[in-house]
Specification:
Blueprint (H helix, E strand, L loop, with lengths): L11 H13 L15 H15 L4 H11 L9 H16 L3 E10 L2 E9 L5 E2 L23 E2 L4 E9 L5 H9 L8 E5 L7 H8 L4 E5 L2 H4 L21 E2 L37 E4 L1 H9 L26 E9 L2 E11 L4 E11 L7 H23 L6 E8 L2 H4 L1 H9 L1 H7 E7 L5 E7 L4 H9 L10 H14 L5 H11 L16 H6 L4 E8 L14 H7 L5 H19 L7 H42 L20 H26 L5 H12 L22 E3 L7 E3 L1 H8 L3 H30 L3
Parallel strand pairs: 4-8, 5-6, 6-7, 7-9, 12-13, 12-14, 14-16
Antiparallel strand pairs: 1-11, 2-3, 2-10, 5-10, 11-13, 15-16, 17-18
Helix pairs in contact: 1-14, 2-9, 2-18, 3-9, 9-18, 14-15, 19-20, 19-22, 20-23, 21-23, 22-23
Length: 768
């Protein structure tokens, strides 16, 4: 489901210069050379283990597995989806894992009829079909579901068409400013600018009766490069499928929120499922969108609304009506999660969990099988280590999820079904999804930032032959130097330029980590390479095939091996570390940055509100001077009271002091004798549950499935993260009392986290 947005910005020469500058920076190497979580003697053995792990990774195997698994349509409910699960299961067992398939029954609507036509004097019937292309062996196979958006409503509607750009909140404000009303209309938006599910949701909220989403070549077609098959980008008839469920409320089966969709589970009635939309939605190609856009009348679209099609972009409405039909089979389908375990030798009740999904929208070579074959490579290499006599100290759990594409179904249902056991045992969840040539992308719990950096510093980039960490640092510096860089990009570049650890991203949603991190409070990571591939143009289309990936994704599968090394080393270190490798000062430093951002947001919001009031007062004066003018002033934001962030400031300060005390105690322990076994076990149990202290059972306002108070997908950003979401989103929505209330609640959550950190410090310094 995840789509990489990284693109190269400068020439190779500039990039190599950035590498050199980064490598020369004081402190650009990892701060402490010791292997985090290991004594000196254990570190040597661990590094030898990782070398033996690496020696077993074979890119030819990744290629063969990918070709086989992407050889037939691979969506939920297809015969090949089940066959792939059984293939993965057989491989895990062959490699010595204790493996089984866990099946859940989920609501999975599939289209019975989709149709779209332009009525009137210049009628057009949309093809809604992706034809075969030369050189792509699977592009003409039967069994691929037609392009559709799952969890939109059924409907048969006819209405004029209105163009709403990306269909985001500011776009509707612009339509209103131009006097264009979407009530009773069908809205057409282009992909991009925000998550697809927000487009029909906002259209619905503004009174539209249907929504079309098309792929403009400006964003992922010929404006970016040659179209497939000449190049990697979206051809004229290519369509992006995808879920439009309101996953900002909760992911997973829409009928079983918060519980696993097992046979005896109590299911909601379809009409009561809050994540299913109320209007029909359909994705279309830019070939099918062109006649519809040409039929629009009304004002010219703003300059930044105009795509790359050879037509005049207008906002509408159209003179002729558009007829949209979506009818679905709202039945249940099985999803097949493959779960494999290697029991730990000394701490079997601490689990280190690794996941990637195996279902695709069509063939799924890039999304997700490029990541799934790296997970398989890791599992085979770990099985080889076991045959050589090694055994993990903690239990390793490897999972290949099903049903991720429709809405994180397989992972969410498994996590909900095993919630109590996972919260007791899981110390890490490590996710991947798509993978291709380019730069390491790493996001997750910031207590894991140092571990990611140490591992990434020891893995060589296949293309540049520097470490993947230093290549990522150089990329951050290049992105931050762009005159068009966003403030947050510049801030990240500044941190990277300081040397030492490069910052990892915060996680929102869009892949299978959501249930683990944001619902259960398990420390999580998401990893993958990308940015130099041309896969975005075939995202969720029939052309996400082996032939496309072998040309435009990762031709020699070198980055598949690189991801297996990064993810595999993190798994092995977390499994065997004497003390779980989490550094809480990194979380504290990141939290300080987030709190600073909230202060800036409050100041900027106050200035914007005051400016709006001045403009409206001037407008009202003009209306009084000429009462015949039939102009209604825009809605006035309420006066902004003082937002009390003091509890957050104080909690962050206390946490900073506790993190410093813990780090000092850890340094003393690392330099001294090993802890007694019983105390080390107690310490690790507390460390493994630290992230749960950043959650609250009541959850976030209006969506209690999301319980993490530091990371969550935004209500109006889709996959995009909102940090300290209870406070940040209240300020952005101008819910002033709620902002102060959640500042106090978040401070209490942080104080619980700090109190457990203080207990860790006491354990480290205890003399007996």
């Amino acid at each position: 489901m995840t789509r990489s947005a990284i693109r190269p910005l400068l020439s190779l020469g500039c990039l190599l210069a950035a590498f050199a500058a980064a490598a020369a920076s004081p402190g650009s190497r990892t701060e402490d050379a010791a292997l985090f979580g290991f004594s000196t003697g254990a570190a040597t053995a661990q590094q030898d283990l990782e070398r033996r792990f690496d020696a077993q990774l074979d890119p030819a195997e990744l290629r063969d597995w990918l070709k086989q698994m992407a050889s037939q349509p691979n969506q939920v409910g297809s015969p090949h989806d089940k066959a792939n699960a059984e293939f993965i299961l057989a491989k895990f067992r062959e490699w010595g894992w204790d493996a089984h398939i866990e099946t859940f029954s989920v609501l999975y609507p599939t289209p019975k009829k989709v149709a779209l036509e332009l009525l009137g004097p210049n009628p057009y019937t949309a093809a809604l079909h992706e034809p075969a292309v030369a050189g792509d062996a699977t592009s003409d196979l039967a069994g691929v579901l037609p392009p559709y958006n799952i969890y939109g409503a059924d409907g048969d509607v006819s209405a004029p068409l209105v163009y709403a750009n990306y269909g985001m909140p500011d776009d509707y404000k612009e339509l209103a400013r131009r006097g264009v009303d979407v009530r009773g209309k069908i809205v057409i938006t282009r992909y991009g600018g925000g998550w697809r599910g927000l487009k029909p949701k906002l259209a619905q909220e503004h009174g539209a009766i249907g929504c079309l989403i098309y792929s403009d070549p400006h964003d992922d077609g010929y404006a970016m490069g040659d179209a497939y098959p000449q190049g990697g980008w979206r051809p004229a008839q290519g369509v992006q499928r995808g879920s439009v469920a309101d996953m900002q409320l909760y992911p997973g089966d829409p009928l079983t929120p918060g519980i696993g969709s097992t046979p005896g589970a109590k299911r909601l009635a379809l009409k009561d499922a809050k994540t299913i939309l109320k209007i029909p939605v359909l994705p279309i190609s830019y070939a099918d969108a062109t006649p519809l856009l040409q039929a629009l009348r009304g004002p010219m679209a703003p300059a930044n609304w105009r795509g790359a099609l050879p037509l005049t972009y207008r906002v509408g409405p159209s003179a002729s009506k558009v007829h949209l039909t979506v009818l679905s089979d709202w039945g249940q389908k099985p999803v097949y999660d493959v779960i494999a375990m290697l029991k730990g030798a000394t701490a079997p009740d601490q689990w280190v969990v690794r996941g990637n999904h195996h279902d695709g929208w069509t063939f799924g070579a890039w999304d997700p099988l490029s990541g799934n074959v790296t997970l398989m490579a890791e599992a085979k290499a770990i099985g080889g280590l076991v045959k050589q006599g090694w055994r993990p100290q903690r239990t390793l759990v490897y999972a290949s999820w099903d049903g991720e594409e429709p809405g994180l179904l397989g992972s969410t249902e498994w996590a909900e079904a095993h919630a109590a056991e996972l919260q007791q045992k899981a110390v890490l969840y490590l996710n991947s999804d798509t993978n291709a040539r380019g730069f390491l992308g790493a996001g997750g719990s910031h207590s894991l930032q140092h571990l990611v950096n140490q591992v990434a510093d020891g893995v060589t980039d296949p293309e540049t032959h520097v470490s993947v960490r230093e290549r990522l640092r150089a990329h951050m510096l290049v992105e931050g130097s762009s005159k068009d860089a966003k403030p947050e990009t510049k801030a990240i570049a500044k941190l990277a330029a300081e040397g030492g650890d490069v910052p990892i991203q915060a996680l929102g949603s869009g892949s299978d980590y959501s249930a683990f991190l944001e619902h259960l409070g398990i420390a999580s990571l998401n990893l993958g390479f990308g940015g130099e591939d041309d896969d975005a143009g075939i995202y969720h289309s029939r052309y996400d095939s082996f032939d496309h990936y072998a040309r435009f994704g990762d031709p020699d599968f070198g980055y598949g091996v690189a991801l297996a090394k990064v993810a595999g080393h993190i798994m092995l270190r977390t499994a065997d570390a004497g003390v779980l490798p989490m550094r809480f000062g990194d979380f504290s430093d990141t939290l300080d940055r987030y709190v600073g951002e909230l202060h800036t947001l409050v100041d900027d919001t106050r200035k914007a509100t005051e400016q709006q009031h001045k403009l409206l007062d001037s407008h009202a004066f003009a209306l009084d001077a000429d009462p015949t003018r039939p102009v209604a002033p825009p809605a006035r934001d309420s006066d902004m009271p003082a937002i009390d962030l003091a509890p957050l400031d104080q909690a962050a300060k206390r946490l900073r002091q506790s993190a410093q005390a813990y780090q000092a105690a850890y340094a003393r322990h690392a330099a001294g004798p090993d802890l007694p076994a019983a105390r080390q076990q107690q310490l690790n149990q507390l460390i493994g549950r630290m992230e749960q202290n950043l959650t609250d059972p009541a959850g976030l306002p209006g969506r209690n499935w999301f319980k993490h108070f530091i990371y969550a997908p935004g209500m109006l950003t889709g996959y995009g993260v909102k940090t300290v979401p209870g406070v940040r989103e209240a300020i952005e929505a101008r819910r002033w009392d709620e902002a102060s209330h959640y500042a106090a609640l978040t401070a209490k959550v942080l104080d619980r986290y700090r109190a457990q950190l203080d207990r860790l410090t006491v354990l480290l310094d205890k003399r007996s």
